[in-house]
Design brief:
heterodimer, A: about 290 residues, TIM Barrel, 2 domains, 8-stranded parallel beta barrel, 11 helices, B: about 100 residues, alpha+beta, Ribosomal Protein S5, domain 2
Amino acid sequence: MRQKRRTMLYIPGNNPAMLIHGGTYGADSLLLDLEDSVALEQKDSARILVKNVLKNINFYDAEVCVRINHLDTPFGIEDLKEIIPLKPDAIRYPKTETIEDLKRLVTVMEEIEDQHNILHDEIKIHIMIETALGVQNVFEIAKLCHRLDAITIGGQDLTADMNIKSTKDGSGIDLARKMIVMAAKANKIDAIDTVFVDIDDEEGLRKETEKSKNLGFTGKAVINPRQIDIVHEVYTPTEQEIRKAYKIYKEFKKKKKEGIGVFAVDGKMVDAPVIARAKYILELAHINLQEI
Amino acid sequence: MKIIKKAQAGSFESSDILILAEKPKDTKGRVIQLNSIVEKQYGDTILKTVNAILDKFEVADIHLVIHDKGALTPVIEARMETVLLRASNNQKGTMY
């Protein structure tokens, strides 16, 4: 079954209340953050806290990712040394700009994994593209290694890097969004959209999430548990979509037995891309394809 | 592990614990002052956790002032580890 990543909830790594309750908020994915949400003088404290939380707290079905500090900082290697042995689902790497950045991360991860007898494909990697250089190189970076499982756009840092104002319509980072989605899709991995910072503007969040979905993003990062339901509503297929997908897939299985590749459902042509889309919707709806 | 300077870890936020550590002034051994919103029910458990971490790091002489706001055991353990590493000058990767 496909791992759903409609929402990725940022949880500051030095906030015990949010860390402990992380699994109860209902996000598909949790992002325990050691980077930007942690003050420089609390990096050590957050790392130890996240380590203990990973050891002891149940996050139920949520995917658990840890955003480490960049390896160019004094904290990145220490973060990996403490976090890798606890085998989170993924490591999120900030400010990835070049192939060399990702190669370096993989090398360090593999060294630590070897010390702890952890297989090299157990922990996935998510990268964040947050600079113009990262956007320029994203197509090369995206195809570098099989461990890369998702690409995220960091909208706040990217606007800062581009020296532009962050606007609600996101016009300044529109091209970057599209390039990141295309790079991810070309490599069959997920693309996660950036956060919507105005937590009181629910309508604005809904509109931006609809735009993200239409662009091809798999899901959206959220900074407050209040944002989860809205993003899920947008990303969850409607009953009508599920019924249509079910009908298409059922007909596909029937026609396949008859050796027919292209057919019509409700007067509309169904071919391989339509079937692929139907499968995707059914998987998101947790419907077992074998039972159709 | 020897405590060589004053240090603190944690916060007054709900579900957290603030721990201040220093060398005991005129005495030897462990001096622990605990103030917790759940002291009546969990005071003994908190002290047991604190002492277990002091044992793990082999700290014999220390003065701790602890303000607990309902932290769970993994949080208490994390804040204790942080304050001890800071107070013993062993913490790496921090500007503290």
